[in-house]
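Weekly modeling sync, notes
Attendees: AB, CL, MP (scribe)

Item 1: holo prediction request
CL wants a bound-state model with adenosine-5'-triphosphate before deciding which constructs to order. AB pointed out that an apo prediction alone won't tell us much about the pocket. Agreed to run with the ligand included and paste results into these notes for async review.

Input as submitted:
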Amino acid sequence: MSKIGIMGGTFNPVHTAHLILAETAYEQLGLDKILFMPSKKPPHKMHESIVSDEHRIQMVQLAIQDNPHFVLSYAELNREGVTYTADTLEELSSQNPKDAYYFIMGGDSLFQLETWWKPNKILSLSRVAVAVRGYETIEGYKDQIAYLSKKYNTDIQLLATPNLDISSRDLREKRKQGKSIRYYVPETVYNYIVDNHLYQGD
Ligand SMILES: Nc1ncnc2c1ncn2[C@@H]1O[C@H](COP(=O)(O)OP(=O)(O)OP(=O)(O)O)[C@@H](O)[C@H]1O
Ligand SMILES: O=C(O)c1ccc[n+]([C@@H]2O[C@H](COP(=O)([O-])O)[C@@H](O)[C@H]2O)c1
């Protein structure tokens, strides 16, 4: 049996907080590997402008290539239409029934989790590991963790990450304003964004 972390995201673009979050989960939960799983068409971002799958794949690949326990997963990119986490977990666990899945997320996702498709299935097929985001505090998460843990009879893990106030949205905005995003993303990803003129206009 392997313990597999899933770092799902739009990764538009992937940034340093995603990588720190995944590495912390790997270490703290004693995982065997982390799947970086770009979403195809996230249901809650249907109207957002997202760079092509190819660009997001390239950026994730560049970001994780030096880490032997980080793996790019095409599980959602290979599916047609809207991709739901519950369906992805069902597919993964039927392919590898002996593996245990840990779905890694930031606090914004934790507070939205009940609005996702079939939260019950998500929480029965995986354990959630959550990191405090930006200026939020652990205190603000405790009630939500206790509520979800009790309701869905699960054990939600809190990850000991530093609070990193980095978001893809802010990085896209900085680029639009001509500001630097150097060091918010790995150097390879920074060069890719600059070389491909990504996030410069509308
Ligand atoms: N700074 C952060 N701290 C903790 N978790 C984060 C952080 N940034 C992203 N995450 C988590 O990583 C996962 C994937 O995030 P996503 O790709 O949407 O990045 P994002 O920065 O939230 O993007 P956007 O600003 O476009 O919404 C989500 O579960 C999100 O909560
Ligand atoms: O399945 C759902 O209903 C659902 C709704 C919102 C988000 N998700 C997943 O949550 C992960 C983080 O999403 P995002 O948009 O914050 O990058 C990513 O894997 C999404 O597919 C899933």
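Recorded for review: The pocket of nicotinate mononucleotide (ligand 2) is lined by residues 8-10, 39, 42-45, 83-86, 109, 116-117 (CB under 6 Å).
Action items: CL to compare against the apo run; MP to circulate these notes.
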